């Protein structure tokens, strides 16, 4: 179990957004969170008790737009994705108003302009149900406790280092280089890709690598910067962790045990 | 002669069972049959049967602990039935859960992995950047290299931490996504 508190919290059944009542052209909403435009659309369709395969598009579009306008009136930033969906709804609505081409009707089968939207809603609904399943599993898992960490070399004196620790070490090394006067004539440049490959190989061969050791082998500022970017990239993309054995100490790049 | 050999084997089995239990207890993460077999220098089949017997013995004596299979390994944990007393002792409350957006994003990643940000957007109809950041921070998802397509977008998949967090043996332990289809249409 993760002891750290989460930033966001909600209850699947209590705190999802809900439109409480509707009168005239005004929707009253209980403020909460719609996970996205598809979530809102599904909600409106359910509210109308409409068949998802036969969405009353004019009515749903109106309600959708009313909701968006209200969010604006309440000064809630409307995410661009909600507006994209609004545009799509209006497009579908206008397509449905157009009379069928009497010439084309016989040969080609006319596709329902709503079809793509219906498919997306059905697909989305599955994942929404899967999200609910995950939510329920968390509830069960929160009632189960495993043993806490046992002191061992692996988890003892190591403090996980952040990018900022890495930056401060890098600054120290750069400062050290400043004092050395060096003539740079030949330009032997190493590309970032080579640097990453080289770094990766060394970490995976040895299991871990000291950042200071790695940086101090390099000569020019250009190389150092490339190496620094390589370290950032490798931590982001590979299963490699940054850690320190003590605060302000050297930073170790360590392979994560699978 | 035969009797003593049998007795000896039996005693060894008891010792082995003790050792297996001890290792499962000290392991920080769920420990696999493979690793147990390596450390104890025994056959996997034997370890497997010993673990199975241990599971039964926990059940039989109505233990407050359970031996369960999770994230490809075995773990000793408390039983759900005891959670109130455990919480009272630990003085903790259930930690807050993931947001709706994060859970949806995680569901898409779990079922569609490896999956890119544009593919997640296609299903959810909404940007998932902050949800992905939260999930990465919590180590529930990991990057799975670049997809060799226009823009080489990063691909994401679930981590071992994900299996542990949701109490899953492995990814196949997730209900099939088609089951949700039936659920939705009914």
Classify the secondary structure makeup of chain B into a structural class.
Answer: alpha+beta
Order of helices and strands of chain A: EEHHHHEHHEHHEE
Instruction: Tell me the β content of chain B.
Output: 5-15%
Sheet with most strands: strand arrangement of chain A: 3-5-6-4
Q: Give the proportion of residues in helices of chain B.
A: 55-70%
Chain pair sharing the greatest interface: A-B, 57 and 51 residues
What is the makeup of the main sheet of chain B?
A: 3 strands, antiparallel
Query: What is the average per-residue confidence, as pLDDT of chain B, rounded to a whole number?
Result: 89
Task: Please count the beta strands of chain B (DSSP E, at least 2 residues each).
Answer: 5
Notable features of this structure?
heterodimer, A: 258 residues, alpha+beta, 2 domains, 4-stranded antiparallel beta sheet, two-stranded antiparallel sheet, B: 186 residues, Arc Repressor Mutant, subunit A, 3-stranded antiparallel beta sheet, 5 strands, 13% strand, elongated
């Amino acid at each position: 179990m993760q002891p750290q508190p989460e930033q966001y919290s909600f209850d699947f059944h209590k705190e999802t957004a809900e439109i409480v009542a509707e009168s005239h052209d005004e929707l009253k909403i209980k403020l909460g969170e719609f996970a996205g435009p598809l979530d809102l659309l599904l909600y409106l369709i359910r509210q109308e008790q409409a068949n998802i395969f036969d969405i009353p598009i004019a009515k749903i579009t109106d309600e959708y737009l009313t909701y968006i306008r209200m969010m604006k009136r309440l000064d809630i930033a409307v995410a661009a994705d909600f507006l994209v969906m609004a545009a799509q709804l209006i497009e579908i609505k206008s397509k449905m108003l157009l009379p069928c081409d009497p010439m084309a009707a016989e040969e080609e089968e006319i596709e329902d302009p709503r079809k793509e939207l219906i498919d997306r809603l059905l697909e989305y609904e599955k994942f929404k149900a899967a999200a609910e399943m995950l939510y329920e599993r968390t509830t069960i898992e929160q009632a189960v406790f495993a043993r806490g960490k046992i002191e061992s070399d692996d988890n003892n004196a190591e403090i996980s280092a952040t990018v900022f620790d890495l930056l401060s070490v890098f600054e120290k090394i750069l400062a050290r280089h400043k004092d050395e006067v060096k003539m740079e004539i030949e330009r032997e440049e190493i590309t970032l890709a080579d640097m990453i490959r080289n770094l990766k190989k060394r970490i995976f061969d040895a299991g871990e690598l000291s950042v200071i050791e790695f940086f101090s082998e390099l000569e020019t500022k250009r190389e150092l910067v490339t190496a620094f970017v390589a370290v950032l990239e490798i931590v982001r993309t590979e299963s490699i962790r940054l850690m320190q054995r003590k605060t302000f100490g050297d930073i170790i790049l360590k392979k994560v045990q699978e | 002669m035969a009797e003593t050999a049998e007795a000896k084997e039996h005693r060894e089995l008891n010792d082995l069972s003790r050792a297996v239990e001890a290792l499962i207890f000290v392991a920080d993460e769920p420990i696999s049959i493979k690793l147990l077999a390596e450390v104890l220098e025994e056959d996997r089949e034997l370890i497997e049967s010993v673990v199975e017997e241990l599971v039964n013995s926990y059940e039989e004596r109505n233990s407050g602990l359970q031996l369960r299979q999770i994230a490809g390994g075995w773990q000793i944990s408390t039983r759900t039935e005891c959670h109130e007393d455990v919480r009272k002792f630990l003085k903790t409350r259930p930690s807050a859960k993931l947001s709706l957006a994060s859970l949806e994003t995680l569901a898409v990643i779990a079922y569609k992995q490896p999956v890119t940000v544009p593919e997640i957007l296609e299903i959810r109809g909404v940007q998932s950047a902050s949800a992905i950041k939260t999930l990465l921070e919590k180590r529930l998802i990991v990057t799975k290299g670049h997809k060799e397509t226009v823009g080489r977008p990063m691909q994401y998949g679930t981590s071992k931490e994900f299996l542990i967090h949701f109490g899953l043996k492995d990814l196949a332990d997730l209900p099939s996504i088609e089951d949700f289809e039936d659920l939705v249409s009914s």
